Amino acid sequence: MATLREIRRRINAIKSTQKITKAMKMVSAARLRRAQDAILKFRPYASEIDNLFLELFDKIPNYAHPLFFKRQVKKILLLVLTSDRGLCGSFNSNIFRAIEDFINKKLKTKYENVKVSLICVGKKGFDYFNKRNYRIDQKYLNFYADLSIDNVRNLIEIIKEKFLTGEVDKVYAVYNEFISVISQKVKIEELLPIKIVRKVKDKKNVRAIYEFIYEPDKEKILNSLVPKFFEVKTYRMFLESYASEQGARMTAMDNATENAKELLRILSLSYNRARQAAITKELLEIVAGASALKEIK
Question: Is the pTM of this model over 0.70?
Fold first, then answer.
Protein backbone atom coordinates (compact mmCIF):
# COMPACT_ATOMS: atom_id res chain seq x y z
CA MET A 1 0.00 0.00 0.00
CA ALA A 2 1.26 3.48 -0.89
CA THR A 3 2.41 5.72 1.94
CA LEU A 4 0.72 9.01 2.80
CA ARG A 5 3.65 10.95 1.36
CA GLU A 6 3.46 9.10 -1.96
CA ILE A 7 -0.29 9.66 -2.23
CA ARG A 8 0.13 13.38 -1.42
CA ARG A 9 2.83 13.63 -4.08
CA ARG A 10 0.54 12.03 -6.68
CA ILE A 11 -2.36 14.32 -5.71
CA ASN A 12 -0.18 17.42 -6.14
CA ALA A 13 1.13 16.17 -9.50
CA ILE A 14 -2.40 15.51 -10.80
CA LYS A 15 -3.58 18.93 -9.63
CA SER A 16 -0.73 20.56 -11.57
CA THR A 17 -1.58 18.51 -14.65
CA GLN A 18 -5.26 19.41 -14.31
CA LYS A 19 -4.38 23.13 -14.32
CA ILE A 20 -2.40 22.64 -17.55
CA THR A 21 -5.13 20.65 -19.33
CA LYS A 22 -7.77 23.17 -18.26
CA ALA A 23 -5.68 26.07 -19.58
CA MET A 24 -5.03 24.24 -22.87
CA LYS A 25 -8.76 23.56 -23.21
CA MET A 26 -9.52 27.27 -22.82
CA VAL A 27 -6.83 28.26 -25.37
CA SER A 28 -8.13 25.70 -27.89
CA ALA A 29 -11.71 26.88 -27.32
CA ALA A 30 -10.71 30.46 -28.17
CA ARG A 31 -8.81 29.34 -31.28
CA LEU A 32 -11.66 27.05 -32.29
CA ARG A 33 -14.15 29.92 -32.25
CA ARG A 34 -11.99 31.88 -34.67
CA ALA A 35 -11.26 28.84 -36.86
CA GLN A 36 -14.90 27.78 -36.91
CA ASP A 37 -15.98 31.30 -37.82
CA ALA A 38 -13.43 31.38 -40.66
CA ILE A 39 -14.49 28.04 -42.18
CA LEU A 40 -18.22 28.79 -41.87
CA LYS A 41 -17.71 32.12 -43.65
CA PHE A 42 -15.50 30.59 -46.34
CA ARG A 43 -17.75 27.64 -47.23
CA PRO A 44 -20.43 29.72 -49.04
CA TYR A 45 -17.74 31.48 -51.09
CA ALA A 46 -16.14 28.15 -52.01
CA SER A 47 -19.55 26.73 -52.92
CA GLU A 48 -20.33 29.71 -55.17
CA ILE A 49 -16.97 29.42 -56.95
CA ASP A 50 -17.69 25.73 -57.42
CA ASN A 51 -21.15 26.41 -58.90
CA LEU A 52 -19.84 29.10 -61.26
CA PHE A 53 -17.01 26.85 -62.40
CA LEU A 54 -19.36 23.92 -63.15
CA GLU A 55 -21.84 26.17 -64.91
CA LEU A 56 -19.23 27.59 -67.28
CA PHE A 57 -17.67 24.16 -67.82
CA ASP A 58 -21.05 22.79 -68.94
CA LYS A 59 -21.44 25.63 -71.46
CA ILE A 60 -18.07 25.03 -73.18
CA PRO A 61 -17.91 21.69 -75.01
CA ASN A 62 -14.50 20.01 -75.31
CA TYR A 63 -12.90 22.46 -72.91
CA ALA A 64 -9.23 21.65 -72.17
CA HIS A 65 -6.84 22.98 -69.54
CA PRO A 66 -3.39 21.72 -68.43
CA LEU A 67 -4.71 21.07 -64.90
CA PHE A 68 -7.31 18.66 -66.36
CA PHE A 69 -4.78 16.59 -68.26
CA LYS A 70 -4.80 12.87 -67.41
CA ARG A 71 -1.79 10.68 -68.11
CA GLN A 72 -0.38 7.31 -67.16
CA VAL A 73 0.09 7.26 -63.41
CA LYS A 74 3.65 6.49 -62.33
CA LYS A 75 4.22 9.08 -59.59
CA ILE A 76 1.71 10.22 -56.99
CA LEU A 77 2.01 13.08 -54.54
CA LEU A 78 0.12 13.18 -51.23
CA LEU A 79 -0.46 16.50 -49.48
CA VAL A 80 -0.67 15.50 -45.81
CA LEU A 81 -2.21 17.97 -43.34
CA THR A 82 -1.46 17.21 -39.68
CA SER A 83 -0.76 19.25 -36.55
CA ASP A 84 2.53 20.60 -35.22
CA ARG A 85 1.72 19.68 -31.62
CA GLY A 86 0.17 16.65 -29.98
CA LEU A 87 -2.41 16.33 -27.19
CA CYS A 88 -5.28 16.32 -29.70
CA GLY A 89 -6.63 12.80 -29.33
CA SER A 90 -6.75 10.66 -32.46
CA PHE A 91 -6.54 13.67 -34.82
CA ASN A 92 -3.12 12.68 -36.23
CA SER A 93 -3.27 8.91 -35.78
CA ASN A 94 -6.43 8.72 -37.90
CA ILE A 95 -4.55 10.49 -40.71
CA PHE A 96 -1.57 8.14 -40.42
CA ARG A 97 -3.76 5.04 -40.53
CA ALA A 98 -5.80 6.35 -43.49
CA ILE A 99 -2.67 7.19 -45.53
CA GLU A 100 -1.00 3.82 -44.93
CA ASP A 101 -4.20 1.97 -45.88
CA PHE A 102 -4.67 4.20 -48.93
CA ILE A 103 -1.13 3.60 -50.18
CA ASN A 104 -0.92 -0.13 -49.47
CA LYS A 105 -4.46 -1.23 -50.25
CA LYS A 106 -5.44 1.09 -53.09
CA LEU A 107 -2.59 2.89 -54.84
CA LYS A 108 -0.12 -0.02 -54.98
CA THR A 109 -2.82 -2.44 -56.15
CA LYS A 110 -4.36 -0.07 -58.70
CA TYR A 111 -1.13 1.30 -60.19
CA GLU A 112 1.78 -1.02 -60.88
CA ASN A 113 5.21 0.13 -59.64
CA VAL A 114 3.82 3.51 -58.60
CA LYS A 115 6.10 5.86 -56.66
CA VAL A 116 4.49 7.80 -53.82
CA SER A 117 5.93 10.96 -52.30
CA LEU A 118 4.60 13.28 -49.60
CA ILE A 119 4.41 16.96 -48.80
CA CYS A 120 3.98 17.12 -45.03
CA VAL A 121 2.32 20.17 -43.50
CA GLY A 122 2.72 19.77 -39.74
CA LYS A 123 5.52 18.41 -37.55
CA LYS A 124 3.61 15.31 -36.41
CA GLY A 125 3.09 14.08 -39.96
CA PHE A 126 6.70 14.74 -40.92
CA ASP A 127 8.08 12.94 -37.84
CA TYR A 128 5.84 9.90 -38.34
CA PHE A 129 6.49 9.33 -42.03
CA ASN A 130 10.16 10.31 -41.89
CA LYS A 131 10.83 7.60 -39.26
CA ARG A 132 9.15 5.04 -41.53
CA ASN A 133 11.30 5.99 -44.54
CA TYR A 134 8.56 7.45 -46.73
CA ARG A 135 9.79 9.75 -49.46
CA ILE A 136 9.10 13.33 -48.33
CA ASP A 137 9.54 16.00 -50.99
CA GLN A 138 8.95 18.96 -48.69
CA LYS A 139 7.98 19.74 -45.12
CA TYR A 140 6.22 22.77 -43.67
CA LEU A 141 6.49 23.19 -39.90
CA ASN A 142 4.54 25.76 -37.84
CA PHE A 143 2.53 26.51 -40.98
CA TYR A 144 -0.69 27.15 -39.03
CA ALA A 145 0.94 29.83 -36.88
CA ASP A 146 0.39 32.19 -39.81
CA LEU A 147 -2.30 30.49 -41.88
CA SER A 148 -3.24 32.80 -44.73
CA ILE A 149 -4.29 32.54 -48.36
CA ASP A 150 -0.91 33.97 -49.41
CA ASN A 151 1.08 31.23 -47.66
CA VAL A 152 -1.22 28.54 -49.02
CA ARG A 153 -0.97 30.08 -52.49
CA ASN A 154 2.81 29.63 -52.45
CA LEU A 155 2.38 25.95 -51.63
CA ILE A 156 -0.29 25.62 -54.32
CA GLU A 157 2.09 27.01 -56.94
CA ILE A 158 4.69 24.39 -55.98
CA ILE A 159 2.13 21.59 -56.34
CA LYS A 160 0.90 22.92 -59.69
CA GLU A 161 4.46 23.18 -60.97
CA LYS A 162 5.16 19.56 -60.02
CA PHE A 163 2.05 18.44 -61.92
CA LEU A 164 2.49 20.63 -65.01
CA THR A 165 6.14 19.62 -65.46
CA GLY A 166 5.28 15.93 -65.16
CA GLU A 167 7.18 15.44 -61.91
CA VAL A 168 3.98 13.89 -60.51
CA ASP A 169 0.96 12.45 -62.35
CA LYS A 170 -1.64 12.66 -59.59
CA VAL A 171 -2.04 14.71 -56.43
CA TYR A 172 -4.18 13.77 -53.44
CA ALA A 173 -4.86 15.71 -50.24
CA VAL A 174 -5.41 13.95 -46.90
CA TYR A 175 -6.92 16.02 -44.11
CA ASN A 176 -9.55 16.10 -41.35
CA GLU A 177 -12.86 17.67 -42.30
CA PHE A 178 -14.51 19.67 -39.53
CA ILE A 179 -17.93 18.23 -38.68
CA SER A 180 -18.40 19.49 -35.13
CA VAL A 181 -16.39 20.15 -31.99
CA ILE A 182 -16.37 16.45 -31.11
CA SER A 183 -16.37 15.02 -34.63
CA GLN A 184 -13.79 15.16 -37.43
CA LYS A 185 -13.73 13.00 -40.55
CA VAL A 186 -10.61 11.99 -42.48
CA LYS A 187 -10.99 12.90 -46.15
CA ILE A 188 -8.82 11.83 -49.10
CA GLU A 189 -9.52 14.02 -52.12
CA GLU A 190 -7.99 14.06 -55.56
CA LEU A 191 -6.57 17.51 -56.26
CA LEU A 192 -4.91 17.05 -59.64
CA PRO A 193 -5.86 16.44 -62.34
CA ILE A 194 -8.97 18.44 -61.50
CA LYS A 195 -11.91 16.10 -61.36
CA ILE A 196 -15.34 17.39 -62.37
CA VAL A 197 -18.06 16.37 -59.94
CA ARG A 198 -21.37 17.49 -61.38
CA LYS A 199 -24.19 18.45 -59.05
CA VAL A 200 -27.91 18.03 -59.61
CA LYS A 201 -29.22 21.30 -60.98
CA ASP A 202 -31.67 23.16 -58.79
CA LYS A 203 -34.64 24.44 -60.77
CA LYS A 204 -35.08 27.27 -58.27
CA ASN A 205 -31.55 28.48 -58.94
CA VAL A 206 -31.51 31.79 -60.84
CA ARG A 207 -28.69 30.56 -63.07
CA ALA A 208 -30.84 27.60 -64.19
CA ILE A 209 -33.60 29.98 -65.36
CA TYR A 210 -31.72 32.85 -67.01
CA GLU A 211 -28.92 32.96 -69.55
CA PHE A 212 -26.18 35.39 -68.57
CA ILE A 213 -23.93 37.37 -70.89
CA TYR A 214 -20.24 36.78 -70.16
CA GLU A 215 -17.52 39.31 -70.96
CA PRO A 216 -14.97 39.02 -72.50
CA ASP A 217 -16.15 35.44 -73.22
CA LYS A 218 -16.89 32.19 -71.38
CA GLU A 219 -13.62 30.46 -72.21
CA LYS A 220 -11.41 33.32 -71.03
CA ILE A 221 -13.38 33.60 -67.83
CA LEU A 222 -13.09 29.85 -67.26
CA ASN A 223 -9.33 29.96 -67.95
CA SER A 224 -8.94 32.51 -65.15
CA LEU A 225 -11.41 30.64 -62.94
CA VAL A 226 -9.67 27.23 -63.05
CA PRO A 227 -6.62 28.32 -60.95
CA LYS A 228 -8.95 30.18 -58.58
CA PHE A 229 -11.14 27.08 -58.24
CA PHE A 230 -8.08 24.96 -57.39
CA GLU A 231 -6.79 27.58 -54.95
CA VAL A 232 -10.11 27.91 -53.12
CA LYS A 233 -10.54 24.14 -52.89
CA THR A 234 -7.07 23.70 -51.38
CA TYR A 235 -7.35 26.62 -48.97
CA ARG A 236 -10.66 25.26 -47.68
CA MET A 237 -8.88 22.01 -46.75
CA PHE A 238 -6.39 23.95 -44.60
CA LEU A 239 -9.21 25.78 -42.82
CA GLU A 240 -11.05 22.50 -42.24
CA SER A 241 -7.90 20.86 -40.87
CA TYR A 242 -7.08 23.72 -38.50
CA ALA A 243 -10.63 23.88 -37.12
CA SER A 244 -10.62 20.09 -36.70
CA GLU A 245 -7.32 20.22 -34.81
CA GLN A 246 -8.60 22.80 -32.33
CA GLY A 247 -11.85 20.89 -31.84
CA ALA A 248 -9.96 17.62 -31.26
CA ARG A 249 -7.54 19.26 -28.81
CA MET A 250 -10.33 20.98 -26.89
CA THR A 251 -12.22 17.69 -26.57
CA ALA A 252 -9.06 15.80 -25.54
CA MET A 253 -8.14 18.38 -22.89
CA ASP A 254 -11.70 18.43 -21.56
CA ASN A 255 -11.60 14.63 -21.21
CA ALA A 256 -8.17 14.84 -19.55
CA THR A 257 -9.45 17.43 -17.07
CA GLU A 258 -12.43 15.25 -16.17
CA ASN A 259 -10.19 12.19 -15.82
CA ALA A 260 -7.91 14.16 -13.51
CA LYS A 261 -10.93 15.10 -11.40
CA GLU A 262 -11.90 11.43 -11.10
CA LEU A 263 -8.33 10.43 -10.21
CA LEU A 264 -8.23 13.09 -7.50
CA ARG A 265 -11.46 11.72 -6.04
CA ILE A 266 -10.06 8.17 -5.95
CA LEU A 267 -6.71 9.30 -4.51
CA SER A 268 -8.44 11.42 -1.86
CA LEU A 269 -10.36 8.35 -0.73
CA SER A 270 -7.12 6.34 -0.66
CA TYR A 271 -5.39 9.12 1.28
CA ASN A 272 -8.18 9.29 3.86
CA ARG A 273 -8.20 5.50 4.28
CA ALA A 274 -4.42 5.42 4.69
CA ARG A 275 -4.55 8.28 7.23
CA GLN A 276 -7.31 6.58 9.20
CA ALA A 277 -5.34 3.34 9.15
CA ALA A 278 -2.24 5.18 10.44
CA ILE A 279 -4.27 6.86 13.22
CA THR A 280 -5.86 3.53 14.18
CA LYS A 281 -2.45 1.90 14.27
CA GLU A 282 -1.08 4.65 16.52
CA LEU A 283 -4.06 4.33 18.85
CA LEU A 284 -3.61 0.57 19.05
CA GLU A 285 0.06 1.05 19.86
CA ILE A 286 -0.81 3.56 22.62
CA VAL A 287 -3.45 1.23 24.08
CA ALA A 288 -1.05 -1.71 23.92
CA GLY A 289 1.65 0.36 25.60
CA ALA A 290 -0.74 1.46 28.35
CA SER A 291 -1.84 -2.14 28.91
CA ALA A 292 1.79 -3.26 29.15
CA LEU A 293 2.51 -0.55 31.78
CA LYS A 294 -0.50 -1.70 33.83
CA GLU A 295 0.71 -5.27 33.82
CA ILE A 296 4.18 -4.16 34.96
CA LYS A 297 2.68 -2.24 37.90
Answer: yes
